[in-house]
C-alpha cells in the first residue's frame, strides 16, 4: 500500500541554509545562531538582512539596508485611499491581503522575477508592511493614519504609527525582540505556500498574498488571540488550575500549547516568558502573567510527557497587549515579522527552482461511465 505523508509531515522537498529546528530538544537556529542570541543581541532589521544575504552583515551593510527600509516606509496615496475605503469591521488579515495585492498593481516592477527585482521588492515590502498594518488598524478604528517617521527603528516606528504616540526605548526594544522571534520558522505552512506560488515563476506580490492567506487560518496564525480570550475567560489566577483541569478532562485543546514540531519547550516562548515576567513585575500588570504561569504549570504537569509545552503564542499576546496592540492585530503582526522569512525563503528557493507538484493517491472509482442527465437518480 502506498504510504501517505499526511499533512506532508516529515517530507523534505528542498534544502535551506536559513533556519534549523530541532523540535525534540527545543532548538531554533538562524544561520546556525541560536534564536536566544538573535533576541538578545540583534534587531529585526539585522536578522532580515542576514537571512536575505545568508550572513551577518557588516556595520555599513546594515546601515545601508536600514536607510533603504526607511526611504521606503511611505505607502502610495492610492493605497492609502484603498485602505481608507475598506469596509469597517473586517478581518485585518483580509485587509492586509488586499492591500498587498493592490500594492503590486502600483509597482511597475511587480512582474519582474529576476533576483535583483525580487530583492528590491522585498525591501519595499518589508518597509511598507509596517505602514500598511498600522494604517489598517487606525482607519478601522476611525482614526487618521499616522505618517512614518524616519528617526525611529522599524519596531519603534510601527508602534508610533499604530498608536500615534512615540514609544519608550524599552517598548520599542521589547517589540523588536518579538519581531525577531517571529521572522522565520523553516517550512511552516505560510512559507511553504509562498514557495509553492514562487515555484510556478509567479511574482513576489502573488507569493506574499498567498502566504498571508495561509497565515490567516487559526491553526497557523491567531492562536495568541485565542490565548487572550482564554485569559479573559479565566479572569483571576486562583481560577486558572481548575479551569485548565476541567478543559483537559473534557479533552478540549488549550490554546498556546503544543506544536507540530516542538515536543519540548518552544525556545521562543521561553524568551517571551522572561520578557512577559519582566513587564509584569515592573508595571504590576501581573494578573495575566500569573494566570499564564499557573496554566503553564498545570499543562506541563498533565501533558509534559506527551511533549505538550507552551509555544510562541502562549506569552506573545500579553506582551503585545502591554504594548497597546489589540488582539485582532496579533496575526497581522506575525505577518509584519514573517514577511522577511517569506521573502528570504522565496529568494533562496528560486535560485534552484523546481515546480512544486506533489501527487495524491487516487481512491475513487476507475470503471464508471457517463450517465445522461435524464437517466440519473
Ligand atoms: N491542548 C491539549 N491537548 C493537546 C494540545 C493542546 N493544545 N495539543 C495537543 N494535545 C494532545 C492531543 O489531544 C493528543 O492527545 P492524545 O494522544 O490523547 O490524542 C496529543 O496531545 C498529541 O496531539 P496532536 O494533535 O497529535 O499534536 P499535533 O502536533 O498534531 O498538534 C497543534 C499541534 C495543532 C499546534 C496542537 O498542539 C494545537 O491545536 N495547539 C493549540 C493551538 C495553538 O497553540 N497553535 C499555535 C501553534 S504555534 C504556531 O503556529 C506559531
UniProtKB/TrEMBL annotation:
InterPro entries: 2-MeCitrate/Citrate_synth_II, Citrate_synth-like_lrg_a-sub, Citrate_synth-like_sm_a-sub, Citrate_synthase, Citrate_synthase_AS, Citrate_synthase_bac-typ, Citrate_synthase_sf
Highest taxon in the source lineage: Bacteria
Pathway of action: Carbohydrate metabolism; tricarboxylic acid cycle
Keywords tagged on the record: Acyltransferase, Transferase, Tricarboxylic acid cycle
Any one GO MF annotation of this record: citrate synthase activity
Biological process per Gene Ontology, one example term: carbohydrate metabolic process
A Pfam family annotated for this UniProt entry: Citrate_synt
Annotated catalysed reactions: oxaloacetate + acetyl-CoA + H2O = citrate + CoA + H(+)
GO CC terms of this entry: cytosol
Active site, UniProt feature: 259, 313
Family, per entry: Belongs to the citrate synthase family.
Cross-referenced PANTHER family: CITRATE SYNTHASE, CITRATE SYNTHASE, PEROXISOMAL
Record-given protein name: Citrate synthase
Species: Deinococcus humi
Amino acid at each position: 500500500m502506498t504510504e501517505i505523508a499526511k499533512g506532508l509531515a516529515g517530507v523534505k522537498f528542498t534544502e535551506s541554509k536559513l533556519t534549523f529546528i530541532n523540535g525534540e530538544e527545543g532548538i531554533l537556529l538562524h544561520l546556525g545562531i541560536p534564536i536566544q542570541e538573535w533576541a538578545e543581541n540583534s534587531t529585526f532589521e539585522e536578522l532580515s538582512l542576514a537571512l536575505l544575504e545568508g550572513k551577518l552583515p557588516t556595520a555599513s551593510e546594515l546601515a545601508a539596508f536600514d536607510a533603504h527600509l526607511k526611504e521606503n516606509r511611505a505607502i502610495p496615496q492610492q493605497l492609502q485611499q484603498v485602505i481608507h475605503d475598506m469596509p469597517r469591521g473586517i478581518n485585518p488579515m483580509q485587509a492586509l491581503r488586499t492591500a498587498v495585492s493592490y500594492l503590486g498593481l502600483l509597482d511597475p516592477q511587480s512582474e519582474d522575477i529576476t533576483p535583483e527585482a525580487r530583492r528590491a521588492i522585498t525591501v519595499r515590502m518589508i518597509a511598507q508592511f509596517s505602514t500598511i498594518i498600522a494604517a489598517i488598524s487606525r482607519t478601522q478604528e476611525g482614526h487618521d493614519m499616522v505618517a512614518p517617521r524616519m528617526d525611529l527603528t522599524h519596531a519603534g516606528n510601527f508602534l508610533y504609527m499604530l498608536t500615534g504616540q512615540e514609544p519608550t526605548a524599552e517598548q520599542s526594544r521589547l517589540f523588536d525582540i518579538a519581531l525577531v522571534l517571529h521572522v522565520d520558522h523553516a517550512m511552516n505552512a505560510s512559507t511553504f505556500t509562498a514557495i509553492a506560488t514562487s515555484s510556478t515563476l509567479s511574482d513576489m506580490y502573488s507569493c506574499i498574498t498567498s502566504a498571508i492567506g495561509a497565515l490567516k487560518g487559526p491553526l497557523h496564525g491567531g492562536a495568541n488571540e485565542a490565548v487572550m480570550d482564554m485569559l479573559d475567560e479565566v479572569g483571576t489566577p486562583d481560577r486558572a488550575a481548575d479551569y485548565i483541569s476541567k478543559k483537559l478532562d473534557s479533552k478540549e485543546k488549550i490554546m498556546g500549547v503544543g506544536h507540530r514540531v516542538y515536543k519540548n519547550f518552544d525556545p521562543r516562548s521561553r524568551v517571551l516568558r522572561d520578557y512577559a515576567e519582566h513587564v509584569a513585575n515592573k508595571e504590576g500588570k501581573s494578573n495575566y502573567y500569573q494566570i499564564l504561569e499557573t496554566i503553564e504549570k498545570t499543562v506541563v504537569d498533565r501533558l509534559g510527557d506527551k511533549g505538550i509545552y507552551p509555544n510562541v503564542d502562549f506569552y506573545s499576546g500579553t506582551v503585545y497587549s502591554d504594548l497597546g496592540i489589540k488582539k485582532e492585530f496579533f496575526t497581522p503582526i506575525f505577518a509584519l515579522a514573517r514577511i522577511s522569512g517569506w521573502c528570504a525563503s522565496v529568494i533562496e528557493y528560486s535560485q534552484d527552482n523546481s515546480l512544486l507538484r506533489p501527487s495524491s493517491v487516487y481512491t475513487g472509482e476507475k470503471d464508471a461511465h457517463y450517465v445522461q442527465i435524464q437517466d440519473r437518480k
